[in-house]
TrEMBL record:
It holds the Pfam family DUF4124. It comes from Azotobacter bryophylli. InterPro entries: DUF4124. This is DUF4124 domain-containing protein. Residues 55-81 are annotated as: Disordered. Residues 1-22 form the signal peptide. It comes from the Bacteria. Residues 12-60 form the DUF4124 domain. Keywords: Signal.
Length: 165
């Protein structure tokens, strides 16, 4: 007899819960180009675009476009002006001041040339694990033996190549 009311209460609670399927998200762009996504809206000096966030049921089978937003169409001059205002907000920092980067770094590793500014990882990629490692006052030295020839590579306290012999 007590089972019926308890079951009815559980069914009422489960049936009354409405699933949250979609929500509006505001994309706020400041005059300096900084973009922020928020649920509360934008300040008066920011350009506001509304995006509908929708999380479809997994395996529903239908493809869904993500992050569709309502936005005005830019004129060609506006698009060109926005392209000219591109700002790099992050770049790779190897810890050695990026003295050797990109293609120059890859070619040096492939040709097994060691240059100042390379990292320990670069040296180990080029020459493999060292035969011997020594250290003094936070600085370290890798020793490589290749037949009768010995190579010595010195690193500073940040792990950057300072010299080679």
């Amino acid at each position: 007899m007590h089972q019926l009311p308890r079951t009815a209460i559980v069914m009422l609670l489960l049936g009354s819960a409405t699933p949250l399927l979609a929500s509006n998200v505001f994309r706020c762009q400041a005059p300096n180009g900084h973009v922020t996504y928020t649920l509360q809206g934008c300040t008066t000096d920011q350009q506001q675009d509304i995006q509908q966030a929708f999380n479809p049921t997994p395996s529903s089978g239908a493809p869904v476009t993500l992050g569709s937003k309502t936005r005005h169409r830019e004129s060609r001059s506006e698009a060109q002006n926005s392209l000219e205002k591109v700002t790099v907000v992050g770049q790779r920092d190897d810890g050695c001041g990026n003295r050797i980067v990109g293609r120059e770094r890859r070619e040096a590793v492939i040709k097994r040339h060691i240059r100042p500014g390379m990292t320990r990882a670069d040296v180990e990629s080029a020459l493999g694990a060292p035969d011997r490692v020594t250290g003094n006052n936070g600085r370290s030295r890798y020793l490589y033996r290749d037949g009768g020839r010995t190579r010595q590579i010195s690193f500073d306290e940040n792990g950057c190549v300072t010299e080679k012999r």
